[in-house]
Amino acid sequence: EFDVEDGVLFKWSKHMDAEKMVNAYGMIPGDMLNFFFIMLNPYQLSTGKYIGLLDVLDNAKIINDFIHMEKWIFDCPDQAGEYYKTWMKDLWRENKLKKGEFYLGDKLIDLKKITHPVLNVYGEKDNLIPMSSSIPFLEMISSKDKEEACFPVGHAGIVASSRSQKLIAPKIAEWILARSK
Fold this sequence. Notes:
This protein has helices at about 10-15, 20-25, 30-40, 40-50, 60-75, 80-95, 95-100, 130-135, 135-140, 160-180, and strands at about 25-30, 80, 105, 105-110, 120-125, 145-150. About 50% of the residues lie in helices and about 10% in strands. The protein contains ten helices and six strands. The longest helix is centred in the C-terminal third of the chain and has 18 residues, at about 160-180. Helix 1 crosses helix 6 (about 80-95) and helix 2 runs antiparallel to helix 6 (about 80-95). The chain has about 180 residues and is mainly alpha-helical. The strands form three sheets. The protein has a two-stranded antiparallel sheet with strand order 1-2. The protein has a two-stranded antiparallel sheet with strand order 3-4. It has a two-stranded parallel sheet with strand order 5-6.
């Protein structure tokens, strides 16, 4: 089963009143979301990572990758309020996707109806969507062609890191190309 209770977003959803936030802001400010993300691991995400740069100041590539990752992380747009409320309530608090009760608009989403090939990509260090939430997904779908790919990255590292370009994107491309013949 999806173990969303291991995930940080589940814990947030229990302590944050999305309804009040949306009523106060209309949108959920991206800067506020970034603040919440930093508070997941305050020392490492606000100070430690910058101190770590002192050891690699002579490595232009690492510094360049770091700057690009920081730019990507802090370029978080505001989130639509109604979407955010639904996301927090239905997907995190009530785990409706797993239960087969999640609607996207007026369409019920039934994971068992997924029969197309699926590559489930996740990061072993992801503190927002932990492996315990990602791994069970393949058991919940009906596809005969399904594979998982775990990488030594965190949440943002899946799409915005040097590893994403060296390891993850090539794996995804190889997987897609193998099925497009």
